Amino acid sequence: MLRKRVIPCLDVTDGRVVKGVQFVDLVDEGDPIELAAQYAAGGADEVCLLDITASSDDRATMLDVVRRAAQNVFVPLTVGGGVRSVEDMRATLRAGADKVTLNSAALARPELINECAAEFGSQCVVLAIDAKRAGAAALWEVYTHGGRNPTGLDAVEWAAEGAARGAGELLVTSMDRDGTYDGYDIDLLRAMRAAVSVPVIASGGAGSIDDCVAALDEGLADAVLAASIFHRDEISVAVLKAGLADAGVAVRL
Amino acid sequence: MTRIALIDHGAGNLVSAARGLERCGARVTVVQSAAGLDVADGVVLPGVGTTGAAMARLHEQGLVAALEQWSKPLLGICVGLQLFFAASQEDDTRCLGFIEGEVARLPAAPLLPHIGWNDVELLDDPLFDGLGPSELFYFVHSYAPVPHDEAAVIGWAEYGSRFVAAARCGNRVGVQFHPERSGAAGLAVLANFVAGCKEARRAA
User: Fold this and answer.
1) Rounded CA separation A83/A85 (Å)
2) B184 burial class (0-12, 13-18, 19+ CB within 10 angstroms)?
3) Please, are residues B80 and B45 in contact by the beta-carbon 8 Å criterion?
4) Interchain contact, A199 vs B116, CB within 8 Å
5) Is the pLDDT of residue A196 over 70?
6) Cα–Cα distance for residue pair B74/B55, rounded to 1 Å
7) Which of A159, A99, A50 is nearest to B12 (CA)?
8) Chain B contact for A42 (CB, 8 A cutoff)
9) Is A130 a catalytic residue?
10) A123 to chain B: which residues are within 8 Å by CB?
């Protein structure tokens, strides 16, 4: 049986883990190498490192973080932020990533998804989508560059296009819920699930075990990604997984 | 120290495979041609990517003949295992042909790629020494091998349908999952392979 995954996410800038609310007001949360090893040892099914300033800053620092994190993390490492070309993706994989997320660069030039999938296989190409509700209806708009720029694109349509171009997984972040502890955007997850047949990782809004159960059961997500609750030790990975198991979710204990 | 040659054919998981093997006490040398193989006690053929690209690289590197002649322990990981078979549906690729059978897209899978931790039923094999009859391992793939003879199978998994998670043919053994990314159980598999390489060297 395939188990549902719990994925702690480390947002990294200048070699440090930070976390904000709705993508702003960043607070230092610690050392990415230490945190990644701690989460892996604590039962994380995967660890995600996102370079949140990568679209504007130097990538060398991030590759060094990935290289050092990969030494001690024996669960999958998903890395993203600022990957603009097949060569960037190769460098990230060579630094020790198992999967690489594409975001702004794929929106600027969607063929990048096809090129990366052809070179490395769909299974290591993750399309990250930062989506924000557009009005009251079940419509979400895609944003780029760490949530700074609206694109006018429909998030669900973009997800379908990305999967058709070869993305093997979707990392769907609700910008409305990010860092708020208000729970995942279940409608967004369900809309994504209906639109694609690749795994969907839920992101943005986790505040409790119940929120994670809802994303996996009602939202039909394959994995839950969270940052704030883990960094601040509000809920440890082990406690969350035990709680999911109690709620009848098949997880790796 | 047990020396492992890790074949670099452009696969994505080269680094994590190297770190995992080192953690198990091996001295790892990354090789891009047959030149580095002679001093090794064992070879690891990793793989994340496509079988077509991997086979093309192995041909360019002159490694196809070298692997055919290699009689010491060989471990294939993911695409590395798939290359052991005669052919793959992926890119319609002719592979190494160590084991009779084909590599096919996972039938009846709820979603593809199959990504995540999946139970594996482990049969009796030295690669799984010290592990239970069922363990969780991390998978990332859309294809899996279908051997003509099930005697080659040493591990089964289920995702929509039953599929081959590990296979052996003499000193050539392979796993469809990623031991380098499967926590303690995965490291145990790598440690067993390294121990097997050491034993084979002593016996030689």
Assistant:
1) 6
2) exposed
3) yes
4) yes
5) yes
6) 16
7) A99
8) no
9) yes
10) 48, 113, 115, 140-142
Residue carrying the six token digits 């495979």: B17
Contact A123 B15 (CB under 8 A): no
Catalytic residue among A31, A130, A185, A222, which?
A130
Residues of B at the A interface, defined by Cβ within 8 angstroms: 12-16, 19-20, 23, 48-50, 53, 79, 110-119, 136, 138, 140-142, 158-159, 178, 180-184, 186-187
Q: How crowded is residue B19: how many other Cβ atoms within 10 Å of its Cβ?
A: 18
Q: Which among B42, B53, B17 has a CA at the least distance from the CA of B178?
A: B17
Q: Give the ipTM.
A: 0.90
User: Cα(first)–Cα(last) distance of chain B, in Å?
Assistant: 16
Contact between A141 and A111 (Cβ < 8 Å):
no
Interface of A with B in 123-162 (CB under 8 A): 123-124
pLDDT value for B12: 64
- The DSSP output letter for B9 is S
Q: Which domains does chain B have, with CATH numbers?
A: 3-203 (3.40.50.880)
Contacts of residue B80, defined as CB under 8 A and 6 or more positions apart, other chains included, come to: B11, B44, B45, B46, B47, B54, B174
- Distance to chain B for A149, nearest Cα, Å: 31
H or E element in which residue A17 lies:
strand A16-21
Distance CA A39, CA A22 (A): 23
Question: How confident is the model over A114-145, as pLDDT tens digits?
Answer: 999 988 888 889 999 999 999 777 799 999 88
HSE-CB at A91 with a 13 A cutoff on CA atoms is 16
Residue A222, chain B, CB below 8 Å: the answer is yes
Length of chain A: 253
How many residues are present in chain B? 204
Instruction: Looking at the complex, report in whole angstroms how far the Cα of residue B71 sits from the nearest Cα belonging to chain A.
Output: 29
Domains detected in chain A = 5-246 (3.20.20.70)
